[in-house]
Amino acid sequence: MQALAAASKTVDCLKLVHSLHAIFLIAGDNNMPIIYQVHRERDGTSFATRKVEAKQKGLVMFTLIVSFQKEELGFEHQAAIMPDVPPPEQLLNMEEIRERRLTDPRFPMQYRNSAAKKKFVPWPIEMRFCQDSKSQHEPR
Fold it and tell me: Which helix (H) or strand (E) holds 2?
């Protein structure tokens, strides 16, 4: 928090925090003061970037990289409406998709036989896939 405060004191007050990344490099000592050194990486019209190093005994123990941005109108990339998709419990997982493909007459018999011989190794996390409505249903 102190590193962010130090960085923000070097930036135009109309610029707000846009993103930040913090890295703890080594353990600090609670009984020693911390020196915050702010580096002005970039000062633009809309954006400003700062790198802050927190030091003890001359060693950098923490680094913060923070980007500030002036509020302005622009492209709203997160305003898109989510597509209408079924809830996850109604979607197929990898094993279910594999089973359907093994029995789907639209796939060549050679492919189905080859795929059936391969051992199925489940993924370490369960994933469910959204597909178009035609491929979600049993073959016609």
Answer: helix 2-8
- Is residue 102 within 8 A of residue 116, CB to CB? The reply is yes
CB-count burial class (<10 Å; 0-12, 13-18, 19+) for 89:
exposed
Residues 18 and 50 in one domain: yes
Q: What is the pTM of this model?
A: 0.53
The DSSP result for 22-81, as a single string, is EEE-S---TTS--EEEEEEEEE-SSEEEEEEEEEETTEEEEEEEEEEEE------TT-PP
Q: Kindly report the backbone phi and psi dihedral angles of residue 62, in degrees, each rounded to the nearest multiple of 5, phi listed first.
A: -155, 140
* Number of domains, the chain: 2
- Residue 116 belongs to domain spanning: 88-135
Same domain, 53 and 93: no
Picking from 16, 42, 70, the residue at the C-terminal end of a domain is: 70
Give the residue from 83, 89, 82, 84 showing the smallest Cα distance to 128.
Answer: 89
pLDDT (tens digit, 9 = 90+) per residue, 60-119?
Answer: 999 999 999 998 877 666 656 777 888 988 998 888 888 888 889 998 999 888 888 988
| 140 within some domain | no
